[in-house]
Amino acid sequence: MEVSRSNFKEHVDTVLKDIKTCSFISCDGEFTGIRNDNFRCMPFDTIDERYEKLKQGNMKYLMCQVGLSFFFLESDGSYTVKPYNFYILPSAAASTDDTSNFVCQTSCINFLTSHGFDFNKVFRDGIPFLKPAEESKALDRLMESHEKKQKSTFKSDKLDTPTSIKPVDEKFLQQTVLQIKEFLRTAAHGDKLNLESTNSYRRKLLYGRLGEIFGDTVTVEVMGIGKQRPLIVTKVDAERKKEIELEALNKKLRELEDAVGFSQVVKEISISGKILVGHNMLLDVMYLISQFLAQLPNTYKEFKPMANEIFPKLMDTKVISSTYLFKDNIEFNSLEEMNKILHTSLYQQIDCEIAEGFPDYTNADAKFHDAAYDSFVTGKCFAIMSKHIGSQASPPVQDIISNSSLLNPFLNKLFINGLPDISYMNLSGAEAKVDRDHMYHITFPPSWQRNDICQVFYPADIYIKWIDTKSAMVTLQHRSDNKAVKKQLANSVHSCTIRSYSDWSTKPCDLTTSGDPSTAASHADSDPSQGSKPMKRAATHRNAVNNDLSRSVSKPKKKHLELSSTTTADTELQATDNNKLFQEEDSW
Predict the structure, then answer these.
(1) Could you give the CA distance from residue 423 to residue 210 in angstroms, rounded to a whole number?
(2) Contact criterion met (CB below 8 Å) for 467 and 509
(3) Across 45-201, where does the E strand assignment appear?
(4) Residue 375's pLDDT is what?
(5) Angle between the 300-310 and 47-58 helix axes, to the nearest 10 degrees?
């Protein structure tokens, strides 16, 4: 169901009720931009660095469409699903920070429009939003303004009346006061008196004098533009004036409530504590927080407890699909490819019925990159994977979503793209330690090519990631070569500077500025054999989640998994080589 500003009020109460009563929620977002070359993500980033780069480089864009699918588990094990599409646009009148700006990347706009995205719905009818802090500030401003109006009749009461007045100006004031007194003798509430045009100095004198004499019985407004501007005096009944001001305040309060818009939906999701599912959902989570709830902290150390408090039950299907339970069958775990494999005979299927009044995605042609459809597919994949995980336990568990420790190993672990030796960030536990002893930073003359770098590390196979035309990170494809490479580097002379990763990471070069794009493009990520081998994810980090699984289930020789009676949701993770949840790979 598509929800925009024009029908948001009509549906918001139902949406809030669905949040409270559903079994779990799946989400997906579409963005006006997804990258910033000034903060390039590198495969040798730490988790802290990656978070900071995403925060600085990506959060200026807009989550312009949010898909939410609410899954309701029925008594027969089937699901009823309500998929919503929300079109989002900031309100310039209410917002007080950079979220009122509309920043975009042409490539992203082209990509979305090529998949049928209608930006007219965003620009014409997008739902506004206000973070709670902004809402509080706006409310304070409204109440302060209302209190001032109750205390003073005149709009320019902040102006100080001159203490010394010339006789000619005093005569003007006296004549005007008499004119207004005569007007008030017969005037009714709302009647107006037009005064002659006068300059700003005399208007200032009038504000002070009329306020002293007439109080709340009249209001004075300045009309027109220019130095000589007429004044309009309006007869006001004091009680009626209070009623009008109260009506105006209530109108502004209703407008403020409308401006909060979609933020109240995200806030309700947070309050509910329900499982929130996404696929490769790190950016989704960061945007849901920064755009609708609160400003992101500067460091990952601060972000972890914040995100865990706001969304205490996050599930990333890309992390789950990387485990040994699925990895053998799901070689490429993009949402589309994962969905295809999970809907084959390899896995037990579930029945999903779309609620009445919602688009039937179950029989529709693929509509990937539509947020509601992607959220529906993500949620259904999660339900299938959960059912499979439960079926592998001994004894089998039919419903592991409602209340089962079998999902604990995946809780609050968000997939990280492009970090070969780090599979995920762990928002509710310790991060697994990563060994980068086989990685080196090298600086060299700008004339060097790939083969020059390969000669330095020959005969070891290496992976090269160019930083700019004069520096790169080199990774040994086989850690077992590291001892020989260190010995070789110590006993050889080269026209380059080589530093170990541990040494370089304490004082790294500036990665916020890229080199000449044309030159950098010619240096393909490659190895000495000319073939560009992709870096594989090392087992060290995967084993951390695996160890958590071993505390909730054990992997016996038989087909089934056995439940452990000592499992707790907050088990701290440590790296281990036993009962691997992730497929182990001994090289990048």
Answers:
(1) 72
(2) yes
(3) 63-73, 79-87, 192-198
(4) 97
(5) 80
Lowest model confidence (mean pLDDT) among 315-324, 418-427, 569-578 = 569-578
Backbone angles phi, psi at 278, to 5 degrees: -150, 170
Nearest to 289 by CA among 93, 536, 29: 29
Bridge-partner residues for 466, per DSSP?
472
Tokens standing for residue 584: 């182990």
Q: Using H for helix, E for strand and C for coil, what is the string for 555-569?
A: CCCCCCEEECCCCCC
| Distant-in-sequence, close-in-space partners of 586: CB < 8 Å, separation ≥ 6 | 478, 479, 538, 539
- Write down the pLDDT at residue 145: 79
Long-range pairs, 306-310, Cβ under 8 A, ≥24: 307/412, 307/427, 308/412, 308/427, 308/428, 310/270
Pairing of strands 218-222, 192-198: unpaired
The phi and psi torsions of 585 (rounded to 5 degrees) equal -135, 130
Rounded Cα–Cα distance for residues 513 and 224 (Å): 52
CA–CA distance, 324 with 322 (Å, rounded to integer): 7
Annotate 123-153 with b (16+ C-beta within 10 A) or e (fewer). eebbbbbbbeebbeebeeebeeeeeebeeeb
Which runs of E-coded beta strand occur in 40-129?
63-73, 79-87
> Could you tell me the end-to-end alpha-carbon distance of the chain, in angstroms, rounded to an integer?
44
365 pLDDT tier (thresholds 50, 70, 90): low
Name the residue among 60, 65, 200, 51 with its Cα closest to residue 127: 65
Residues 204, 495: Cα–Cα separation, whole Å: 78
Q: Comparing C-alpha atoms, which of 253, 238, 239, 242 is closest to residue 143?
A: 253
